[in-house]
Amino acid sequence: MDQKKGLITLIALAAGVIIVSLIFFQTAEGALSNPYPYDESTKATYTDYNTQKAAMYRDALQTGDPQIKKFTQIRVKPRNSDGPDIAKICDLWDYTNNEWTIVSDPRGPEFISPVTETAKADLHGDCDDFSVFLSGMINSLGIDTRIASVDNTGINPGHAYPEVYIGDSESDIRTTGEYIRQRYDCVNVYFSSSYDGNKAGYWLNLDWKIGIPPPEGYFIYGKSSLVHDIYHPGGEYYSPEKTVVYFYPDGEWKKESKQIVYFGKTKFGEPEIYGI
Fold first, then answer.
1. What range defines the domain where residue 19 resides?
2. Across the chain, what does the average pLDDT equal?
3. What is the number of domains present in the chain?
4. How many Å apart are CA 28 and CA 31, to the nearest integer?
5. CB-count exposure of residue 195 (10 Å: 0-12, 13-18, 19+)
6. Same domain for 246 and 148?
7. Beta bridge partners of 219
8. What is the pTM of this model?
């Protein structure tokens, strides 16, 4: 009888091991095929979803936290501490882009790491975390930013990237664009435009450029694979999507059609503004 009980126990244990193994491998396979598990049901009501996400961004930005301002000031190069805002913005973009390690959030794409937590984690995170971290630093200097969100860009549920407000005139575009062109030896600098009433405001693209090689066929006036023309603030926009949701530090959000403007040099002549 004891031998029979022992045999039954062994069979039960073996069956348990097989079941657990199957569950584990199915879960692992699912994680590998979809490293960003995403529940579309959270978008059942689009307005509610964006309102919730706007609140998450607002809280993660930690606006007004003195620790963030101190952290930011150290990352601005001494020669630019009293310089124009665009010089500080470029310093912060360089620091964040160069030090960032892309990882998917262990708690899923709907968790957004606060600025201070990202700093403690040595700048690890996804596109939401990158956008919040860079925006939070720039905000601490009193400069306006927003986070753009687009859906369905590849295998991920979407992509987020930060933008910084540079002004409402063509001269602001020229001043910012020329600074970036000279500092990074690049050709084109990209912005988006938004209208408040009948007046346009211009925002510089601050999307990450981490480990992205020149695209196939990349070509500039007879020179191919110019990496330096890709790695700079104001790079070409990642997504072809025309509809964007913009999230602001105060928790407000706005859905708009993307309007792209760029400042660049033509093959012949002086730099011009295109898209206005």
1. 1-33
2. 78
3. 2
4. 5
5. exposed
6. yes
7. 224
8. 0.76
